[in-house]
From TrEMBL, chain A:
The species this protein was found in: Flavihumibacter fluminis
Keywords recorded for this protein, A-Z: ATP-binding, Nucleotide-binding, Transport
Single GO MF descriptor: ATP binding
Boundaries of every ABC transporter domain copy: 5-234
Name of the protein in question: ABC transporter ATP-binding protein
Automatic annotation (TrEMBL), chain B:
Top-level taxon of origin: Bacteria
Keyword presence, Disulfide bond: no
Higher taxonomy: Bacteria, Pseudomonadati, Bacteroidota, Chitinophagia, Chitinophagales
Transmembrane segments: 20-38, 64-87, 122-146, 166-193, 205-230, 250-272
Protein name, per record: ABC transporter permease
UniProt source species: Flavihumibacter fluminis
Keywords noted in UniProt: Membrane, Transmembrane, Transmembrane helix
Amino acid sequence: MQPLIEVNKLVKKFDTLVAVENLSFSVYQGDVYGFLGQNGAGKSTTLRMLLSLILPSSGSIRLFGEELTPNHKSILNRVGAVIERPDLYKYLTAIENLRIFARMSGVRPSHRLLMDQLEMVGLAERANSKVATYSQGMKQRLGIAVALVHNPDLVILDEPTNGLDPQGIADMRNLILRLSREFQKTVVVSSHLLTEIEQIATRMIILDKGKKMMEGSVADYFQPASNKVHLGVTNPEKAIELLKKEPWGLQVELSREELIVSLASHQVPALNRYLVEQGVEIQSIRSVNSLEAYFLSLTSGNQHVAAFTN
Amino acid sequence: MWQLLRIELFKIFKRPRTYISFAAIGAIVALILLAFYADGTNYMAFGMQSLTQSFDIQGKVLNGYLICFIILQTLLIHVPLLIALVAGDQIAGEANMGTLRLLITKPVSRTKLLLAKFFSSTIYTILLLCWMALLSLVVSILIFGTGDLMILKSEEVVILEKADVLWRYFAAFGFAAIAMTTVAALSFLLSVFAENSIGPIVTTMSIIIVFTILTTMDIPIFNAIKPFLFTTHMIGWKGFFDAPVQWEPVLQSAGILLFHIIAFLVATILIFRKKDILS
């Protein structure tokens, strides 16, 4: 199958700073493709190059089988994007913003169609309100409506959950999944949050300091059955002895006064109950899934942990 | 292109700040008219003191044509600021709002987008001057009537017959449109380098002030550069009020201003086509 996006040996330098280094990856039709990396990893720079906002220093970008630079007009006609904050004209209403950007994309949708678009993102009731009165979450959803107004095949969303409250994040996640499943869009989405990517992406790439650390199917790296469970207990020696014995028979590592065992998520409550019944007091339990563990091994260093595990 | 121009005009005229310029010109013209209505006779008597000692002046000197000429003199002072307010905001303002990156992701060439923005700034400039002409010429004539136009210059007095004045105003406002479009083009160029509109507006005004000071100072070292400063040619509209009109310097000034407009616009396009949009 021909890739929808084919990036080959892409480089972007800002003076002496190499923001993206020799990056190659492919996105296929139907993918929800996750871009994962900490702030400054090169995600936004790469996405901006896919949209002609930034010119590459070298390398090639092909979208829909065509070279981007000479064909960017016809290519961008098939792409919708929200880059970072979805800033729109605050002094215009939602429907005026939507109409302007539809016309810039060469389409003249009817009022009904524009309202349908706003309905899809849950903003129909505020269609005639000025964007200045919108919350961050509403702006984000309007940004998605603007990105979709010309019915693109490919949707690029850069950090779409930034600045949203938990409900807003959940709504955005559902919207992205709907775009993929219901509307058959190919979606490229970036985030610095591992949990975001693993919940929505089918394939992903991990970037670190402008370089590709891995690319592949999320399912290959995310195996819920092999979670690493970190236990903080009052009596580690006794706990290790109990965990090694039947019925658990687990391999136990001791790291920074925490016991680490490999265990499926659904078994964690039973393990907790067992240790308490045996007189071991639990101070903390946290699960680190295999993808997270893999990710941390790639980006190594404690400073990354907070950013990626949130 | 037409569609883009319509969008840009829609955005300009939907912004409240656009109407500040129209209100400012309305206020300035209204104040000048009010002042002349209340105390114009005394002002004229004082201004013409030296002339009336030697000549017997008959007829209505204080008329709508003279007041319009006085208002036009203020053109270089405040209109460039009002032009820069919109033209300087065209790209830098979009970058500041964060909408520039959204515009660039649309299937429109950067050159066409810039041309649409520049032409919309030009239309705004022309409308602002039409508004100024309407108030300063039409309203002045309605209040003070018409008559021969007497202009006091440093070394001569020019008297233009009533029937020979109106076309000169149309020509002068046409020339002013070219001069103010030069300001718009400069501000537009500066707008490419900034991420908020204050920078281009202040820089445009600083350049105009510095160049105007150089133009007005009669120092030999500056005389050599004066012909190359666009501000020298911005007052070329005054040539239409000579008798007879000296066409060569007027047309030369218009040509130099048009050259500046094209040079500023081409530079803007060349820079913007290569610019990384990081805002």
